[in-house]
């Protein structure tokens, strides 16, 4: 993808308007134009990466540091007693802009945002086969 094709790259370059609330050497944070709750923001790396499969762990950590800073700022500035962080990688995970980003969503009440899934507990022993399948992929140092 070219930088011009990516709306987040255009925002970073200053070619697209945004309401930026934080910038540092590695990331930029701006208000989401689709405010789920008051202050809903996006934190994006300055360098284009499509999703988790493309961003390095170090760059992801830099984005997360910025997300922590932004969440504290939103909590203090807006009086939000809670924050949700949300990330989606891939179309099947509801990613709609294919530039790695983290949503920082201030929460004001228990009902101002609906959970995307409901929790169903599985007996721990029933997860043993799944855990072994995941552990068998040794791509981590």
UniProtKB/TrEMBL annotation:
Coiled coil regions in record: none
HIT domain: residues covered: 7-115
Pfam families associated with the record: HIT (PF01230)
PROSITE patterns attached to this UniProt entry: HIT_1, HIT_2
Residue window of motif Histidine triad motif: 99-103
PANTHER family: ADENOSINE 5'-MONOPHOSPHORAMIDASE HNT1, HIT FAMILY PROTEIN 1
Identification of the protein by name: HIT domain-containing protein
Organism: Nonomuraea ferruginea
UniProt lineage: Bacteria, Bacillati, Actinomycetota, Actinomycetes, Streptosporangiales
């Amino acid at each position: 993808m070219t930088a011009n094709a990516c709306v987040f790259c255009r925002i970073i370059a200053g070619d697209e308007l945004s309401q930026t609330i934080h910038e540092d050497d590695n990331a930029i944070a701006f208000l989401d134009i689709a405010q789920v709750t008051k202050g809903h923001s996006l934190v994006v790396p300055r360098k284009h990466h499509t999703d988790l499969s493309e961003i390095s762990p170090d760059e992801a950590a830099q984005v997360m540091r910025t997300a922590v800073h932004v969440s504290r700022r939103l909590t203090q500035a807006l009086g939000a007693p809670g924050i949700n962080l949300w990330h989606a990688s891939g179309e099947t995970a509801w990613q709609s802009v294919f530039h790695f980003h983290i949503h920082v969503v201030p929460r004001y009440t228990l009902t101002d945002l609906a959970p995307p899934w409901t929790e169903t507990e599985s007996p721990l022993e029933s997860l043993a086969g799944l855990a072994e399948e995941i552990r068998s992929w040794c791509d981590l140092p």
